[in-house]
Design brief:
Blueprint: H1 3-13, E1 37-43, H2 61-64, E2 80-82, E3 85-87, H3 93-100, E4 104-111, H4 117-126, H5 136-145, E5 152-154, E6 167-168, H6 173-180, H7 199-219, H8 223-236, H9 239-248, H10 257-270, E7 276-281, H11 290-314, E8 321-327, E9 330-331, E10 343-344, E11 346-353, E12 360-362, E13 364-365, E14 371-372, H12 390-401, H13 407-410
Parallel strand pairs: 1-7, 1-8, 4-12, 5-6, 5-7
Antiparallel strand pairs: 2-3, 4-11, 8-11, 9-10, 13-14
Helix pairs in contact: 1-6, 6-9, 9-10, 10-11
InterPro entries: DUF1501, TAT_signal, TAT_signal_bac_arc
Organism: Sorangium cellulosum (strain So ce56)
Protein name: Tat pathway signal protein
């Protein structure tokens, strides 16, 4: 494979596309990553927590017929309970919450401060409305895996990096085969391992490439240029790590989008080359026919969570997964003329995994889905307390990940929010 063809493939897959100024860790120090995998699931468009983990059923059959009804699909008296968690009795919620309630932390009544999609997504996934700030997934990957070939994988959602790490996008898993085995004529065919060059020739090519890189690096004096060159070089010669990834990929991929995304993230993690991954599914911006369109999308989210938690247990890494699920914002507490629900700034998040105690609910909303303040110590609802915001969750996530005091992370402070003991 010619160098230009390799770079073209790398560009298509999001590998090796490193802008000048990327501040990654020393590439030479990179090794298999053994910390937790941070998986972020984004419900794109603004989900409805009242149809999931913050249920608000209609008071009566008569109210269900009105536009002011909180939900037309169920009555308040039908709200389900699993452990300490309550859930809307729609779709597959009953089976999902009864199976996983002991692992789940639900945070309700989060005020995103916006009805704008762009601002809401940004606030949910980086903890501030300010533009240009990196996602938490980028920060944790920048600290723990900046030199890894696929330290931060993104399938959508908010993946701004602010140059703290390179982001890897994988539009087609077939590209991984070609990137991992650039010397094979047909890398997807295990029965045909014919190569362009002999192994000895490939060794000489790699040695010459490394010598050339060292010579070019020696000529540079600007640290940020040297860092960018090292990161790009790592992405070009990371075939051994990608071969390891191929070994962990399943023989067949799942049909459901979130499941496929999760399969790649889990394989990359087991290969030691991934720290964090964004998974995403769209269709939540249901301004029309809300109940018919929205509830099946929530089922996709629950199915994705179930798949990840189950697969992690089967693969023996359940104690090394941290799952964070969220959306742009919430949906209005009533219906519009098209039986849809519009944008609402109050939302919820669901978390599970290492360091997060399950069977808990933090935060609350009133009957019309307005947020209730919480006591900053006990986290119980308290008038005049603290209004939960995404920044509170992100401060706690940074501490949980052990990166709050890292110099890279300190460049992006969340000083406007209080420290809350969300994870104990």
């Amino acid at each position: 494979m010619e160098r230009r063809d390799f770079l073209k493939l790398a560009s298509m897959a999001g590998l090796g596309v490193v802008a000048a100024g990327v501040l990654s860790r020393d590439a030479a120090a990179a090794g298999p990553y053994a910390g937790p995998l941070w998986v972020h699931i984004h419900a794109s468009g603004g989900w409805d927590p009242t149809s999931l983990c913050d249920p608000k059923g209609a008071m009566s059959a008569e109210e269900q017929k009105t536009r002011e009804a909180m939900n037309r699909s169920y009555l308040r008296e039908a709200i389900g309970t699993a452990g300490n968690l309550k859930y809307a009795p729609v779709g597959g919620n009953d089976a999902f919450f009864k199976k996983h309630y002991s692992k789940l932390l639900v945070i309700n009544g989060i005020d995103t401060g916006t009805n704008s999609h762009d601002a809401g997504v940004r606030n949910t996934w980086c903890g501030t409305l300010r533009e240009g700030k990196p996602a938490f997934a980028a920060l944790v990957a920048g600290v723990h895996g900046g030199a890894l070939p696929m330290g931060f994988i993104s399938n959508g959602g908010y993946d701004t990096t602010a140059n703290v790490v390179a982001v890897t996008r994988i539009p087609d898993t077939g590209l991984l085969q070609r990137l991992a085995y650039p010397n094979r004529i047909d890398p997807g065919n295990e029965e045909n391992r014919e190569q362009y060059h002999t192994d000895a020739t490939m060794t000489r090519i790699l040695e010459a490439r490394q010598a050339r890189h060292a010579a070019k690096l020696e000529q540079q004096r600007l640290p940020h240029v040297k860092q960018a060159m090292s990161t790009l070089f790592t992405s070009r010669v990371g075939q051994n790590e990608l071969k390891q990834l191929i070994q962990y990929l399943p023989a067949e991929f799942e049909n459901a989008s979130l499941r496929r995304q999760a399969q790649v993230a889990l394989a990359a993690y087991r290969a030691g080359i991934c720290v964090s991954a964004n998974l995403s599914v769209g269709g939540f911006d249901t301004h029309g026919n809300h109940d018919d369109n929205h509830i099946p999308r929530l089922d996709q989210i629950c199915d994705g969570i179930d798949f990840i938690l189950t697969a992690a247990e089967e693969q023996g890494i359940a104690d090394r997964i941290v799952l964070v699920v969220g959306s742009d914002f919430g949906r209005t507490p009533g219906y519009n003329e098209g039986n849809g629900k519009d944008h609402w700034n109050i939302t919820s998040m669901i978390l599970a995994g290492a360091g997060i105690a399950g069977n808990r609910v933090i935060g609350a909303t009133d009957d019309r889905h307005n947020p209730l303040d919480v006591d900053p110590v006990t986290l119980a609802p308290k008038e005049g307390g603290v209004r939960l915001k995404p920044g509170h969750i992100h401060k706690a996530l940074r501490k949980l990940a052990g990166i709050a005091d890292d110099p890279l992370v300190e460049r992006f402070p969340l000083s406007e929010e209080e420290d809350l003991p969300l994870f104990g």
